[in-house]
Specification:
Length: 484
């Protein structure tokens, strides 16, 4: 017999609590459970006091409280803890019931869980949730994917709690089958790594290269946020630079320069290697965090081999404009690479992805929300099959306009001894992607010389492979095609 609650939620950390309150605000009755049952009581007596939220001390009682088909959202730690909760719930559910994983799951786990649960007559959704605590409470960006026939049963709830763009459209649409929703969230997080790195490099250039004060940099970012760089991260970076502790200390100046990470940027880089796409800026952003974490080693190296930065002798106003352009161009490349990864993954995993719609999912609520995303949607409206955003007329014009300043910034940073891995790799990709003939023929010749890996020829059709007996003693046996 069905209960009265519209949806259940398991996992009452801050994200789970805020999503519950968001659902309650939109008229849904939510049943909640947490492994540590004291947290259930604290939530019901505290943040959820006076609401219709129902608290339970067992999964059995939570399941019994739900209307049919039962809908249960999991907001627990990714990996084995999620599997443990699913295993606990499965025997209690009936055919057609729906589990929704809102954690930062790896997309392969979501693919496996979708297959396993569908084989038992259940339905599964893995949804990316972006926007942090504030987004969860007032409107996150949601990226659901999994069992397609589950979507009609959860659409109204998820779209109600999602962030909305100016015309009221929700930043929540069905992404695709099995792990596609969590894959899109992974790419979102990878791009987020890149966005933060390009901002950090601008900060480094202005602070260490030009000697600008925090107030001057905050004003600069505020100005940038009124133009093509209008984005959540630019705006909060300006806030960070202007924040002062109670004792008058500027907070940014006392934060240790060692960046942490939770793994989604690394997953993005690994996935790009697995499907053969050059998501170089995200990879460099991950590596930059790794280098930053070697704080003690960096301090020792600075003392031993010298770490002085040469001040940048340039017109300050002009160079700051150049940094703006370098950041914008690098951002374009990063998003182009991210969407190239999505395109390759769609082919690899047989997903039907709408890239313009994905950009709109991130337009509000998401950490990477930016006006810039409307330009991406417009690009895919013009040509849904475009191989890369670099080729779109709007973005190719923007890159050409920024190119001179971009090169100036990278060259100046090199001379000053200021690392700009994101700007540098973005420029290298841009140059390589539009170079008709790269030196990879030398790589293929060397591979064929020492390993008989074969090569293709420019005077023969693609797909024909050749081997040269470079030494006269190697014979004609090959190791297979060069992709091996």
């Amino acid at each position: 017999m069905s209960g009265t609650a519209d949806i259940g939620l398991i996992g009452l950390a801050v994200m789970g609590q805020n999503l519950v309150l968001n659902m309650n605000d939109h008229g849904y009755t939510v049943a909640v459970y947490n492994r540590t049952t004291e947290r259930v009581d604290e939530f019901i007596a505290g943040p959820a006091a006076g609401t219709a939220v129902m608290g339970f001390h067992s999964v059995e009682s939570l399941v019994a409280s739900l209307t049919s088909p039962r809908r249960i959202m999991l907001m627990v730690k990714a990996g084995p803890p999620t599997d443990a909760v699913i295993d606990q719930l499965t025997p209690l559910l009936h055919s057609g019931d729906i589990l929704i994983d809102g954690g930062n799951a790896h997309f392969e786990d979501t693919r496996r869980r979708t297959r396993d649960l569908e084989s038992k007559g259940l339905r599964f959704i893995g949804t990316g949730v972006s926007g942090g605590e504030e987004g969860a409470r007032h409107g996150p960006a949601l990226m659901p994917g999994g069992s397609p026939d589950a979507w009609p049963h959860v659409r109204d709830i998820l779209q109600a709690i999602a962030a909305k763009v100016d015309d009221g459209s929700p930043c929540c649409h069905w992404v695709g089958s099995d792990g596609s929703g969590h894959f899109v969230k992974m790419v979102h997080n990878g791009i987020e790594y890149g966005d933060m790195q390009v901002i950090a490099e601008a900060y480094h250039l202005m602070r260490s290269g030009l000697g600008m004060t925090n107030a001057e940099m905050a004003a600069t970012l505020t100005e940038w946020g009124a133009g093509v760089l209008d984005s959540y991260l630019i705006h909060i970076a300006a806030d960070v630079l202007g924040f002062v502790d109670d004792d008058g200390t500027q907070t940014i100046d006392v934060i240790l320069d060692a960046a942490g990470q939770k793994g989604t940027g690394k997953w993005t880089a690994i996935s790009s290697l697995e499907v053969g796409q050059p998501v170089t800026l995200v990879a460099e952003a991950v590596y930059a965090r790794i280098v930053s974490s070697l704080k003690e080693e960096r301090v020792a190296a600075a003392a031993r081999v010298g770490g002085a930065i040469t001040p940048i002798e340039a017109d300050r106003r002009g160079f700051v404009r150049a940094v703006h352009d370098a950041l914008y161009a690098s951002k374009i490349v990063s998003y182009a690479q991210g969407f190239m990864l999505l395109r390759a993954a769609a082919h690899e995993y047989d997903w039907d992805l709408d890239y313009g719609q994905i950009a709109q999912l991130w337009r509000e609520g998401a950490i990477i929300k930016a006006a810039f995303l409307d330009d991406i949607t417009a690009a895919y409206t013009r040509d849904p099959d475009i191989a890369s955003l670099v080729l779109d007329p709007f973005f190719s014009k923007a890159l050409r306009s920024a190119e001179e300043a971009w090169r100036t910034v990278v060259a100046t940073a090199v001379h000053a001894g200021i690392p700009v891995p994101a700007y540098g790799t973005a420029l290298a990709f841009y140059d390589a992607y539009r170079t008709e003939r790269l030196p990879a023929n030398m790589i293929q010749a060397l591979r064929d010389y020492f390993g008989a890996h074969t090569y293709e020829r420019i005077d023969r059709p693609r797909g024909e492979f050749f081997h040269t007996n470079w030494t006269g003693t190697g014979g004609s046996t090959t190791a297979g095609s060069y992709s091996a």
